[in-house]
Amino acid sequence: MIRLQKFKQLVCWVLVGLFTSWLVSCGMGNDSRPAASGTTTIEFWTMQLQPQFSNYFQSLIRTFESQNPSIKVKWVDVPWSAMENKVLTAVSAKTPPDVVNLNPDFASQLAGKNAWLDLDTKVSSQVRSSYLPNIWQASTLNSKSFGIPWYLTTRLTIYNTDLLKEAGITKPPATYTELGQMAQQIKDKTGKYAFFATFVPQDSGEVLESLVQMGVTLVNADGKAGFNTPQGKAAFQYWVNLYKKGLLPKESLTQGHRHAIDLYQSGETAFLASGPEFLKTIANNSPKVAQSSAIAPQITGDTGKKNVAIMNIVIPRDSKYPDAAVRFALFVTNNQNQLAFAKAANVLPSTIKALSDTYFKEVPPNATTLEKGRVISATQLQQAEVLTPRLKDFKVLQKAIYENLQAAMLGQKTVDQAVEDAARQWDNR
Question: Percentage of the chain surpassing pLDDT 90?
C-alpha cells in the first residue's frame, strides 16, 4: 500500500491513513518445492503492493534467502479492505503470519491485547537508533516497541491552478482558516467545491488530525476526553459551518477518502490533501487535470503541526519463528532497502541515513511536479509527527467524534451538545 494517510489519506490518503480487503495468495515469491532439510519458511504479508512492486519484492526475497540459506520467505499480498479482518482472524486462531505490514493505528489496537512480539527484547538500542526517533516512537505502546517503521508519507496540497485562476485566487491556502475563506470564494466564482473531507467513522482520520492541528487535545494524560474545551468547540464549529454553508459536498457524511481523489480528478474540487504518490494516479486517469495541477505544503492550523502517515512491520507473538521473522523485518527496513523502495514507490524512508540521501534534498533542474513534491514531503518530515494518539480503542474515539459532528452538521444537535456528547461517549466507553 502506498499511502500514508488517512497523512489519511495521508499522508493522504497517503497514506496516508489508516484499511482492509480479501486475502490473496500470491504465487510471486512463493516456493511450491519442498523445503530443504533444516530450512525455516516464514510467511510475509504486505498490504496491496502487487502487482506494481512484484519485481521489487521478488528480488528482495531472493537476496535475503541467498544471505540466509536456512530461511525461506513466502510472500502473500493482501488487498487493503481485507487486511484487518484477515489479521484479526489469524491472530485469534493463533495461526498468524510471521511478518506483517500494517500501520500503527491498527497495530496499536492489537498491541493493547499483547498480540505482537516485544521488539525491545529482539532489536538492540543501536539498531533502533538508526530510525527516525519520532517515527519509531509511533510504534510503541506503554513504553514497549511493537513495530518496526517502514515507509512514510506526509500530506501535500495538490491544487488545480485553472480553478484557482477562475476564482481569482493567486496562491493555495496554508491554514484551515484560509481554506475556509477560499472555499466560499471558489463556490461563488466557479460553482465548485474547494475540497472534500470525510466524516465516515470507519474511514480516514484526517478530520481528527485537523482538530489537533487547530490546537485541540483529543485525549488527556489520564485517558479522558480532552476536546470538551473552547478549542474543541471552535474546531467542531469550523466543520459545521462549512457544511451548513454548502461548502462541503453532502457525500462527506457517506463517502470515504477515496471520493476525494475521484472529485479532484474530475475537476470538481480545487484542492486535494494527499501524498505525492497520487500525482501519477491523477496523470493516468485525468491528464488534463494533472497538467493544471501544482503542489504546496500541507495545510495546517495555528499550531503549525503536520502529519506523517506510517507503515510499519510487526511480528505476531505466536510466530513459530520469531528470530527469523525479526531478521527478515530488519532486512526489509534497513537503510539500503528502504532507500530502494522509497525510490520505487515515491514514498519516504524511516531511517535517518536513507532520508539524508540527496534524492530527498535536491530538486533537479526542470523538475516535474512529482519531483518537487518529493522534496517538499521530505522537508516536512523533519517537523512531522503522528497527530492522533496511540490507543487500543482509537476507532471508538473517532466514531464518537465523527457521529456527533455529523449530528451537528445536520442540525440535530448544537455544537456544544455534540462536543459534550462525544466526550461523554468516550469517557463512558
Answer: 79
